[in-house]
Amino acid sequence: MTDGDKSHLDEQQRTELRLDYQQTMQYIQMLTNIRFLPLTLLPGLTGAAVTVLTRFDNPRTALAVGLMGLSVSVMIILYDIQNTALHDAAVYRAKSIESSLRLPPFTKHKQAGGLFNESPQRIAVAQRRSTKNPLVVRNKNIVAVVYGVVIGGWVHVIVHASTRSLPTGWQPSEIATDLVSLLAAVVVAVLTVLRLPRIVEHNEPEPLDEHSET
Fold it and tell me: Do residues 155 and 141 make contact, with C-beta atoms less than 8 angstroms apart?
């Protein structure tokens, strides 16, 4: 729908758009509830697993549980990425409907009105001294940090258990084992934090026209 068409909507078209908007809002709420579960459950379960499994008497059992936990966590994260793509597409549709209905804006510096058009897309956490631009954090970066810690936690369990499973003569000291497993966890966590936002960006909806978002 072009900008010229937006100002010539008849009452039937407006009614259809309002119904579409209500259904889209319900879909967004459902996806938001689904995405809330892994973000709250995975970090707690991973933290408990790291605490227990790194002190478990049988390192081979800890290794098996760690591999299983890592596999399940990766599958859940991939499932959440799919839901994120669906959520972003639904939000983009809601924003487009708001623009089509020409809702008036009630927020400064916003050309289009509506809940999603006027919602902030980022969080300003600090003001840089050398520039007027604030230091901002986006939602996908916050989620990436959470999942990076989860993946890093399971890697810590796996490396720690693998080291303890070595023959007695090959096993390093307990301090060295902790340091190696912690270093591996940090490296993998950082790589995950850097990579996940790019994966999410690859699955973002592509607009039909090339207008800039407000």
Answer: no
Choose among 39, 68, 70: nearest CA to 139. 39
In this predicted structure, the answer to whether residue 210 has a pLDDT above a threshold of 70 is no
CB burial of residue 167 (10 Å; 0-12, 13-18, 19+): exposed
Q: Which of 142, 195, 21, 34 lies closest to 92, judged by CA?
A: 21
Confidence of residue 126 (pLDDT cuts 50, 70, 90): low
- In this prediction the pTM is 0.79
**What are the structure tokens assigned to 146, written together?**
């959470």
Q: Is 126 helix (H, G, I), strand (E, B) or coil?
A: strand
Q: Is residue 213 very low, low, confident or very high in pLDDT (cuts 50, 70, 90)?
A: very low
Residue with tokens 């936990």: 69
Helix pair 139-164, 59-100: axis angle to 10 deg? 170
Which secondary structure element, helix H or strand E, spans residue 137, and what is its range? strand 134-137
C-alpha distance from residue 81 to each of 35, 74, 106, 162, 166 (Å): 9, 10, 32, 30, 36
Provide mean pLDDT across the span 118-144: 73
CB contact at 8 A, 152 and 185: yes
